[in-house]
């Protein structure tokens, strides 16, 4: 198949939508009693709205937007700690661009940069490693952020620094893992979830078996999905067919990219460099056991928390409440649609964001604002 045209073919999309409509009717799902399908990944949320899949699927299918954006689930206290490190005169603080505008209680990294902190956007931790080689008199800190998708590259950079003996390189580790928050959502008695569209990029690294508990322990279907419109429509159809047939298993729609047991090289690097934290705070979900990663003692000299005495490096980060009126936590856990937030399009816009969901390229609020346009703003009135 042509990976662009064929995965966006209107005739095939129409056939899938017809099949989805038939199965939805067989289940008896209606607008008043819909099937609730959570797409875990923020990239899927944006694809759903970019291609209008929420409008094309029948009213009996309701998409629930999950906590699938690592920038969005980062608590404000961790942004504050980034700024605390970056303001040190000896530090060059490096980060991916989508974290620059996420607000903490003291502003954002972009504002700290404007105030004089040496903060630089990079495309890879390898860029930060090169800065460490070129600036031996400065401390280079990389903001390690992301799910299992980006964790291997950070781990490989730490391994490279160790081989070269680069003592002026460290990582402020905020890497987190996908399965624990899914369990936390399923354990929440107020959540109504009938099935999941699983994350494609994360699954490229970890494979499909880490999701077995969703089917085995909770009896919910999950289908790992790609990001093209036909990928998502096929995945929704696969979830609906499992529900219709009374089955619950892990299926892999994205088999052209996702291997069953993941990427062994990436998994080996993660296991070598990282270990689970006892707990980690998620915005909107609170502390979740073993959901975050920390750098092992063998690589302690590359752990910015330990080196600069911030966050868990001094015991635990401080807990910071959400800004008044901000509903990021409720939106991110599927309890509220972005347009129901009183700040959406008013006190919180992409130009002046109040919460991370409006900043991130994978945030649900940004998707509603970008692709909903005037309709999203009208719905918020």
Question: What labels describe this entry?
Answer:
single chain; 381 residues; 5-stranded parallel β-sheet; 4-stranded parallel β-sheet; 16 helices
Question: What does it look like?
Answer:
With 381 residues, the protein is of the alpha/beta class. It has a domain at 6-69 and 179-244: HypD, alpha/beta domain 1 (Rossmann fold). 40% of the residues lie in helices and 15% in strands. The chain is built from 16 helices and 13 strands. The strands form 4 sheets. The chain has a 5-stranded parallel sheet with strand order 2-1-7-8-9. Helix 1 runs parallel beside helix 11 (229-245). The chain is globular, with a radius of gyration of 21 Å. The N and C termini lie far apart (44 Å). The relative contact order is 0.15.
Provide the CATH architecture of the domain at 6-69 and 179-244.
Answer: 3-Layer(aba) Sandwich
CATH topology of the domain at 6-69 and 179-244: Rossmann fold
Arithmetic mean pLDDT: 91
Strand order of the largest sheet: 2-1-7-8-9
Beta-strand fraction estimate? 5-15%
What is the global morphology? globular
> C-alpha Rg, in Å?
21 Å
| Secondary-structure element series | HEHHEHEHEHEHEHEHHEHEHEEEEHHHH
Low-confidence stretches: none
Indicate the structural class.
alpha/beta
- In CATH, what is the class of the domain at 6-69 and 179-244? Alpha Beta
CATH superfamily of the domain at 6-69 and 179-244: HypD, alpha/beta domain 1
| Number of alpha- plus pi-helical segments | 16
Number of strands: 13
Binned, the helix content reads 25-40%
């Amino acid at each position: 198949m042509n990976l662009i045209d064929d995965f966006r073919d209107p005739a095939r999309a129409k056939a899938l939508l017809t099949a989805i409509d038939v199965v939805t009717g067989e289940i008896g799902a209606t607008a008043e009693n819909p099937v609730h399908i959570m797409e875990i990944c923020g990239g899927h949320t944006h694809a759903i709205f970019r291609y209008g899949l929420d409008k094309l699927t029948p009213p009996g299918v309701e998409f629930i937007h999950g906590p699938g954006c690592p920038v969005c689930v980062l608590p404000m206290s961790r942004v504050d700690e980034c700024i605390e490190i970056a303001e040190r005169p000896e530090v060059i603080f490096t980060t991916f661009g989508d974290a620059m505008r996420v607000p903490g209680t003291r502003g954002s990294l972009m504002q700290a940069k404007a105030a004089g902190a040496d903060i630089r956007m990079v495309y890879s931790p390898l860029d930060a490693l090169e800065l460490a080689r070129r600036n031996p008199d400065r401390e280079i800190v990389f903001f390690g952020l992301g799910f299992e998708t980006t964790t291997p590259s950070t781990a490989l950079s730490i391994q490279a620094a160790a081989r070269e003996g680069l003592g002026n390189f460290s990582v402020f580790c905020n890497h987190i893992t996908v399965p624990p928050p899914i369990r936390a959502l399923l354990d929440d008695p107020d959540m109504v979830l009938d099935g999941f569209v699983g994350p494609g990029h994360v699954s490229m690294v970890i494979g499909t078996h880490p999701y077995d508990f969703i089917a085995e322990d909770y009896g919910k279907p999950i289908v790992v999905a790609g990001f093209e419109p036909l990928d998502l429509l096929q995945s929704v159809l696969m979830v609906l067919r499992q529900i219709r047939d009374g089955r619950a298993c892990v299926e892999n729609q994205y088999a052209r990219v996702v291997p069953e047991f993941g990427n062994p090289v990436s998994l080996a690097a993660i296991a070598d460099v990282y270990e689970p934290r006892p707990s980690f705070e998620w915005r909107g979900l609170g502390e979740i056991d073993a959901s975050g990663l920390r750098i092992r003692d063998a690589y302690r000299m590359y752990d910015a928390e330990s080196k600069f005495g911030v966050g868990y490096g001094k015991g635990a980060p401080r807990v910071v409440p959400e800004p008044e009126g901000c509903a990021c936590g409720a939106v991110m856990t599927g309890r509220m649609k972005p347009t129901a937030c009183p700040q959406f399009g008013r006190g919180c816009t992409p130009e002046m964001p109040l919460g991370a969901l409006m900043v991130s390229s994978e945030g649900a609020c940004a998707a509603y604002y970008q692709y909903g346009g005037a309709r999203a703003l009208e719905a918020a009135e």
